């Protein structure tokens, strides 16, 4: 057997590429940039929500009170109509 030349691949075929492909192509770089942007957006939304937690709780309480008042008024109307 003869020793393989340095320019040949393991299979011995001279047409096969001998260099390893680049680890990260342009598509992978674009995808990682998009992923970083999505992570940044998620962190921004989480920060925005945490800053407005008290306002959201106040709005929820106000909505519950309006709902209870509407239900009470509706029950009074139904009661008045049946009498």
What is the CA-CA span between the terminal residues?
110 Å
Provide a count of the helices. Answer: 2
Mean pLDDT: 75
Helix content: 55-70%
Write down the secondary-structure element order: HH
Rg computed from alpha carbons, rounded to a whole number of angstroms: 34 Å
Structure description:
67% of the residues lie in helices and 0% in strands. With 83 residues, the protein is an all-alpha fold. The chain has a domain at 26-82. The radius of gyration is 34 Å and the shape is rod-shaped. It starts with 25 loop residues before the first helix and ends with a helix. Keywords: Membrane, Transmembrane, Transmembrane helix. This is Lipoprotein. Residues 1-21 are annotated as: Disordered. The chain crosses the membrane at residues 60-80.
List keywords for this structure.
83 residues, mainly alpha, 67% helix, transmembrane, transmembrane helix
Task: Describe the secondary-structure layout.
Layout: H1 26-51, H2 53-82
Could you give a quick summary of the protein structure above?
The chain is an all-alpha fold and 83 residues long. The protein has helices spanning 26-51, 53-82.
């Amino acid at each position: 057997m003869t020793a393989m030349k340095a320019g040949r691949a393991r299979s011995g075929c001279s047409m096969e590429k001998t260099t390893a492909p680049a680890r990260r192509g342009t598509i992978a770089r674009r995808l990682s940039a998009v992923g970083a942007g999505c992570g940044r957006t998620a962190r921004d939304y989480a920060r925005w929500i945490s800053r407005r937690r008290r306002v959201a709780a106040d709005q929820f309480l106000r909505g519950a009170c309006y709902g209870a008042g509407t239900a009470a008024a509706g029950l009074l109307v139904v009661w008045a109509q049946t009498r």
